[in-house]
Amino acid sequence: MTGAPAFDIASLHAFYARGGDVHTIIDRVFARLEEVNDPGIFLHLAERTALLAESDALGPFDAEAKPLWGIPFAVKDNIDVAGMPTTAACPDYAYVPAADATVVRLLREAGALVIGKTNLDQFATGLVGVRSPYPIPRNAIDASLVPGGSSSGSAVATAHGIVSFALGTDTAGSGRIPAGLNNIVGLKPSVGALSTTGVIPACRTLDCVSIFALTVDDAWRVYNTAAHYDATDAYSKDISATGYGPLPPVLTIGVPAKGDRQFFGDAAMETSYNNALATLTALGHRIVEVPFGDFYKVANLLYEGAWVAERYAAVKAFFDSNEASFHPVTRKIYGGAKALGAADAFNGLYALQALKRAVQPVIDSVDLFCVPTAPSHYTLTDLANEPIRENSRLGTYTNFVNLLDMCGIAVPTGKRADGLPASVTLLGPSGRDGLTAALAREIQRAAGVSLGATSWSLPSLPATPTTTSEDGMVDLVVVGAHLSGMQLNVQLRDLDAVFSKEAQTSDAYRLYALAGQIPAKPGMIRVEPGEGGRIEVEVWRLTPASFGQFVAAIPSPLGIGSIALSDGTVVKGFLVEPAAIKGATDITEYGGWRSYVAAQTELRTRSAG
Q1: CATH classification of 474-608 is 3.40.50.800, yes or no?
Q2: Is 69 exposed, middle or buried (0-12, 13-18, 19+ CB in 10 A)?
Q3: Which of 93, 138, 480, 551 is 20 to 30 A from 591 in CA distance terms?
Q4: Are 401 and 173 within 8 A, CB to CB?
């Protein structure tokens, strides 16, 4: 259709700002449906006339009042949309809800338009996308491959550019695997960040509503709109949508130790993962190999005792009276739960708690993790030959995430040597959604691949989002061991501090390497203007309560004072007591602690050689 823009949100809103008509976009949605010609994607479509009327009711274009104004989206068919049947890919289970799920309501209030309900692995049980009585959605990149599940239709609809974004769910990887296999972004929020009221549960204690999008910016905009505490959801949490801004210069990124990595013979996927790690290194981040055996043990728990029983409990009454209505594989999984008792469930919970204790030090040792989204691509033939094994293998790097209360985002990293999509997933502790997305944004920019299965290019990215000084946060200047990538930066992470920017002091400061400090620390002291140097620092932001907690723990001879930056602003930050510089080494000439540490490391390396 001539003149129609790409369907990322920035392009659509630019189109609307130029006077473009939302009717044109709705027409383009239906034209794309015909072009793609895949009957397996949608289980129900909105009426064109109803969509046109809904778009007319939006009023004049206003992206401030309605941040998703005129943006078409799809909804996985285990999430309620008022007036549209919800089936969970089980026709006999179908009902027509009177109200939208909370997350759908919030998105529609922001101006988004529901195009329809998408296909899935029945009752969201599976990672392959083929366990449905309806036609199977075709992988958008290569129709011989599995589309990924359980949110298959949502991922494929987004990858083809039929919609700008789509909602899925994620219990074991259903919001990440289909994204990775279809060259799009899949944001799996912290458990509880998005309400699950109006969502058919799989594992009620683990379920997340996930977001598929063409770009990381789009996924975050949707998340920012939908992440609200919901008193009607017993598992809802008040997790603020913060941290999507400038990246710290150095992140410590944990990756599975080489001996623990599993690709099941897929050399192309292994190579693409190594290339992604090289990109992270080139971006200035520090890669740390960590043992992954216990993470895999957590993953194995998901399809044992407690959580299989939880899936069965979610639809017990319907299953017990309608077993024949279930897909054969789904029926086998749920049926097996009948033999489980309360003791099995508690044993699973005990095993999980022990493993949580074992992996927590590893989680605490890094800022984020980077893992392959999937260990391999599988064909439909592969799956026909090994339906259980291949599904299990797809969850290698996803099944443990919700059990450990982590957030994650899958992001394209380019094409493999064979032309198939490559993807990694960034993982972090609960609440670190913004940091994972901010790094994913840089990875997608570095990859420079087209969006999904379309020929659309990544749009010119807006300036990295920043926070304002009017949001009640307190700025803090750090100069030494609290810098990103340094030993004590974890103290800021633990207080949910958000990186703001790199900066320099005015020329009224001198920097010293203090004696007898473990870990090594510098001390900065104020001198007369022109008698010091401009010292490289970082500015981090904390809530007032966190700032107070942080300051109370600072040991002598360090303290907090007012620091003049080179741009003329004055910010609270680290200074040292004058008495402490006796016997210390003046390192002002290095321009900052990071440069000094790097020089000392290089000197030791040369001496050892």
Answers
A1: no
A2: buried
A3: 551
A4: yes
Q: What is the CA radius of gyration of the chain?
A: 26
**Domain 22-290+359-447: top CATH class:** alpha beta
Does the CA dihedral 406-411-416-421 come out positive or negative? positive
Q: Give the C-alpha separation, 580 to 562, whole Å.
A: 18
**Each residue's pLDDT tens digit, 185-194:** 999 999 999 9
- Annotated catalytic residue, options 66, 76, 117, 521: 76
pLDDT in tens, 304-315: 778 999 999 999
Give the separation between CA 17 and CA 5, rounded to whole angstroms. Answer: 12
Could you tell me the residue ranges of all domains in the chain? 22-290+359-447, 474-608
Is 150 labeled as catalytic in the residue annotation? yes
Check whether 138 has a pLDDT greater than 50. Answer: yes
Question: Is-catalytic flag, 76?
Answer: yes
Give me the residue label for tokens 């919700």: 402
174 in catalytic set: yes
Residues 544-568, buried b or exposed e (16+ Cβ, 10 A)? eebbeebeeeeeebbeeeebbbeee
Q: Which of 151, 152, 174, 195 is catalytic?
A: 174
Rounded to an integer, the average pLDDT of 451-475 is 74
User: pTM for this structure?
Assistant: 0.93
Model pLDDT, residue 461: 59
Q: Which residue, chain included where needed, has tokens 């598992």?
A: 235
- Collapse the DSSP code of 177 into the 3-class scheme (helix H, G, I; strand E, B; otherwise coil) and give the result: helix
